[in-house]
Specification:
Blueprint (H helix, E strand, L loop, with lengths): L2 H20 L10 H10 L6
Length: about 50
């Protein structure tokens, strides 16, 4: 690989990672097993 291509690839890779971090996620927040049991005992619904 030429030096220019290596440099360009590393810059593109870094830019892609930065843009991916700013994208919103649709994944629900993780609730631990102990917290789920505690919430079930209280009878309160799980929060998103």
């Amino acid at each position: 690989m030429s030096r220019k291509k290596k440099v360009k690839d590393s810059i593109v890779k870094r830019a892609k990672k930065a843009s991916d971090k700013q994208k919103p996620t649709n994944k629900p927040r993780y609730i631990s097993k102990a917290d789920r049991v505690k919430l079930a005992e209280d009878g309160s619904p799980l929060e998103d």
